[in-house]
Amino acid sequence: MADLRLDEVGYWTEIKLSIIRDYSKAYAQILSRQRTIRDYAYIDGFAGAGTHISEATGKEIEGSPAIALRTQPPFPHYHFIDLDGSRAERLRQLAEGRHDVTVHEGDCNAILLTEVFPQYRYEDYRRALCLLDPYKLNPNWEVVQTAGQMKSIEIFLNFMIMDAKMNVLWDNPDAVPRAQLERMSAFWGDDSWRKVAYTVQPGLFGPVEEPVPRRALAVVQAYRRRLREVAGFPFVPEPMPMRNSKGAVVYYLLFASHNATGDKIARAVFNKYRDRGLVDGR
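Now predict its structure.
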């Protein structure tokens, strides 16, 4: 544990954490008053070590797990998942003495589908708020679609567009390594992202893929449509762009829900912080 280095995060991550803090509080307040709901939980699919180091101050700050554990009223249960054993152990230390926390060590794509999501079925009057906040293109589409089909799970999802632009959305799509193409397709659910990412124009010998990708925001908006039309979430507000100190969009934060009240609250929270994001989505 002494060798564990905490992630150093920029102000865009601190904005995201503020969004999660605000929404989690509202979510818990509403669910705690619903007499028909038997149980509800907070799920963090890429929980990390629980805390971070702020680039701005150099000080340790609360990550999403620590924020969730301080939410009032508290969630009846918390599920924290991380692939890294040292981070999972630090999460256990963070939750020491608490019987309302389960720390899962392993791939969240498998753990969510087999161990966590089945505990919060709509027909059992159970609900969950799930944060999917990876550093790379993740989770697999099956996880997102399952949450949408269950109708009981709201999600915040980090679309890591910088990873996509660096490793997949190249000027020459034929040069992208197969492993990167497969990774993007796993995130997207199929290879239809190619039709979104590149325009098709007539060439000398027939249609060809234009060598310049469309704007990143167009790809994210297409994913947003998939959340509605394929995963089945009725409510998916405009994604929240998060940028670094140079103005480049690092990722887009999306919210998806089956609940109109949750949608209204998420939109209000996004709007509260939206002017700190990149407006034009370049």
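The two ends are 40 Å apart (CA to CA).
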